[in-house]
Design brief:
The structure holds 2 protein chains of 2 kinds.
Chain A lengths: L8 H22 L10 H5 L4 H31 L2 H12 L6 H12 L4 H8 L11 H25 L3 H9 L4 H30 L2 H7 L6 H10 L5 H27 L9
Helix pairs in contact in A: 1-12, 3-7, 3-9, 5-10, 7-9, 7-10, 8-9, 9-12, 11-12
Chain B lengths: L1 H24 L10 E7 L13 H9 L2 E7 L2 H9 L7 E2 L3 H9 L34 E13 L25 E4 L2 H12 L8 H15 L2 E5 L2 H8 L4 E5 L3 H7 L3 E4 L6 E6 L8 H12 L1 H11 L6 H6 L13 H5 L9 H21 L2
Parallel strand pairs in B: 1-2, 1-3, 5-6
Antiparallel strand pairs in B: 4-7, 4-8, 4-9
Helix pairs in contact in B: 5-6, 6-13
The chains are: A mainly alpha, B alpha/beta.
Chain lengths: ~270, ~375
């Protein structure tokens, strides 16, 4: 044990109380029935929820890819900009986050509705109305909008720390801008990308507010099912916990797969 | 950037100083006793001081010196789940009828000491011993109401309206403009009322028939929502929806064309104040319940939230537009309505599976 490790003890206590204990409770519920006896039947019923799980994973993955495609260039531009521009862009990125997540999603509801902002404007030039609300697209949009900053920030913070002399060296050795980007920026930013993917994928897969507001009951996600199993009219903590556990395992597997990509060029990034 | 930040910060400080000062200038109430009372109620279900109304909780704090921590829930089931998990402190809750009978059944409610609630005298006799609390020892009625059909008179033909039936919610003419409840009990309740069954039926065949009815309806439905029904009706995004009668006036503030009626078989509910067994300060809780039954406070609440008050002297004080047949249905009308009872676990589980099937059908049919 290192001498200074006691500094982390408040956090370790936090982790035990709010992560380890709840996790243990989830496992306990998942493998017991309502009388508290050991059973595997909760896990066995998961099969009937496979459709929700699949939909959630697919939509979460789509949202994550979109966030990456949108966020990576922004992070790159931010990291290469002057200090003042960086601060301004950062401010613009964080500003919407000052508003509550629920309100932001509510706002999207009124933007996308058939009588909403976009369709009203389109009607003025004789177009539409287009069905946007209550579609899969609307749910994915909600995910991308809400979680995009969590993709940009880790990538940006890694890119910003790349030693500028590396670019000069690449230049010196005859690499053009494209080559520098491909051979220097991308490999060095991978740890940020991995963190960003984790931070977007996990909340996207498990969300239920976004699907309820922007999906209107259509395309329910696994988060909706789990919510109902805990606070619905027929609560079943055991199946709910089993579903949460399976969801966690699936997320961990996808994270492990992602990590494999990263292992070749480990640079000690921001992996959570 | 730094300067802007400093500016924002100083503005925020200034505002807080101002509010502290204005707080001081207000009439001083009873000094703080250091007691804290946790109240757990529905959202938008108390007069909160907006637009010059009485801020009921602040008034209570001023008069008693007891600090109120006010929390919201959005369904009886959510309240039950959170309370039962044992993770929260709560002294006063305001659940609905069927949930109260369940809480009594599970020994989760304290008997009230009515010596500490003298204002209970104000509550009308007919609300004192309701079926869900037959001895009347556990609950004090707060508000009551019915489910109703709301529609936007700009888009819905008068000819399509039959105030006795629920058919408007199944009218194909308004496909895509109809909303439904997103909780299974209320949604199945609508189908049960339409088919003339009891809202508390546990008969599988009848429930299957209701399910079929809901499946038939789902291709016409724009979406299944909770509180969002309010906003969607207000903005004109949807034109027909089931909702709770007490919200009509508030809804009309935003959209004057909204009308409502209570069809046969509607659910009538009573939300009552109770003290859960996990209560830490029963005396303060009873003080609060007593305070809520005081005429001026009950009047402020009734005016603000719009749901029917169980205190007739309060009803007399209300504006005429807030006391019509729609808000205070006659006994004859109420005889056609039904109160929810707690269903068996089996029926609830059955409804849950059916509800999930319905959501799948809905997703398939309207893709």
């Amino acid at each position: 044990m290192k001498k200074d490790s006691w500094i982390a003890s408040p956090f370790m206590l936090w982790v035990v109380i709010f992560t380890v204990v709840p996790l243990a409770m989830v496992c306990w519920y998942a493998f017991t029935d309502s009388t508290g006896a050991f059973t595997l039947s909760n896990i066995e019923t998961i099969g009937s929820y496979w459709g929700y799980l699949k939909d959630s994973l697919v939509m979460g993955a789509v949202a994550t890819i979109l966030c990456l495609l949108l966020g990576y260039p922004v992070a790159y531009v931010m990291s290469r900009a002057s200090w003042a521009t960086q601060q301004t862009l950062m401010m613009l990125l964080m500003l919407p986050q000052w508003m509550n997540f629920l309100l932001r999603t509510y706002a999207w509801m009124t933007i996308l509705e058939n009588n909403g902002l976009i369709n009203t404007l389109l009607a003025k030039i004789g177009l539409g109305p287009f069905q946007m609300i209550n579609t899969k697209g609307a749910i994915v949009l909600g995910m991308v909008y809400n979680f995009l900053p969590y993709m940009i920030l880790p990538i940006y913070s890694v890119m910003e720390k790349i030693n500028k002399s590396l670019f000069e060296a690449a230049n010196d050795l005859g690499a053009n801008r494209m080559q520098t980007f491909r051979r220097v920026v991308i490999p060095l930013s991978l740890p940020g990308v991995i963190t960003g993917i984790t931070m977007v994928f996990v909340p996207s897969v498990s969300t239920f507010v976004i699907s309820q507001m922007l999906g209107g009951g259509r395309n329910p996600l696994i988060g909706d099912v789990i919510e109902r199993l805990f606070v619905g009219a027929a609560p079943n903590y055991n199946v709910g916990a089993a579903l949460s556990l399976v969801l966690m395992v699936l997320i961990l597997i996808s994270m492990a797969v992602m990590k494999k990509f990263d292992d070749g060029e480990e640079t000690g990034g921001l992996m959570m | 950037m730094k300067r802007i930040f400093a500016l924002v910060l100083s503005a925020a400080l200034l505002i807080s100083v101002c509010s502290v000062l204005s707080g001081c200038s207000e009439e001083q109430g009873v000094p703080k006793t250091g007691e804290v009372l946790y109240v757990y109620n529905w959202g938008e279900y108390i007069s909160n001081g907006d637009d010059g109304t009485m801020d009921v909780n602040a008034e209570f704090e001023k008069e008693t010196g007891i600090e109120v921590k006010y929390l919201n829930f959005s369904s009886n089931e959510e309240m039950y789940a959170k309370m039962k998990s044992g993770g929260m402190t709560v002294d006063v809750i305001v659940p609905s009828d069927y949930m109260i009978s369940q809480l009594i059944h599970e020994n989760l409610l304290e008997k009230l000491d009515f010596d500490n609630i003298p204002n209970y005298e104000n509550i009308d006799q007919k609300f004192r011993k309701p079926a869900f609390d037959p001895t009347g020892e556990y609950s004090v009625a707060y508000t009551w109401g019915c489910t109703a059909i709301f529609y936007d008179s700009r888009y819905v033909d008068e000819a399509d309206i039959d105030e006795n039936t629920w058919d408007l919610l199944w009218n194909e003419k308004y496909s895509g403009k109809i909303l439904m409840f997103n909780n299974q009990r209320d949604a199945f309740g609508v189908a049960e009322a339409k088919l003339g069954y009891s809202l508390n039926t546990e008969n599988q065949e009848e429930l299957e028939a209701c399910y079929e009815e809901l499946v038939n309806q789902c291709s016409l439905v724009q979406g299944y929502y909770g509180d969002q029904i309010f906003d969607k009706m207000e903005s004109g995004e949807a034109v027909i929806a089931p909702y709770y009668n007490g919200d009509l006036l508030m809804l009309q503030d935003g959209n004057e064309y909204i009308r409502g009626y209570i069809p046969k078989g509607a659910n009538t509910f009573i939300d009552s104040m109770c003290i859960p067994t996990c209560c830490q300060n029963k005396t303060a809780a009873e003080k609060y319940i007593n305070f809520m039954c005081r005429e001026d406070v009950a009047l402020a609440n009734a005016e603000f939230i719009g749901y029917a008050s169980p205190i007739s002297s309060v009803v007399e004080e209300l504006d005429e537009e807030a006391t019509g047949e729609f808000f205070y249905p006659s006994d004859a009308k109420l005889a056609e309505c039904e109160v929810f009872y707690q269903l068996s676990d089996e029926t609830n589980a059955f409804l849950s599976t059916k509800w999930e099937d319905l959501m799948k059908e809905f997703t398939e049919k309207t893709r």
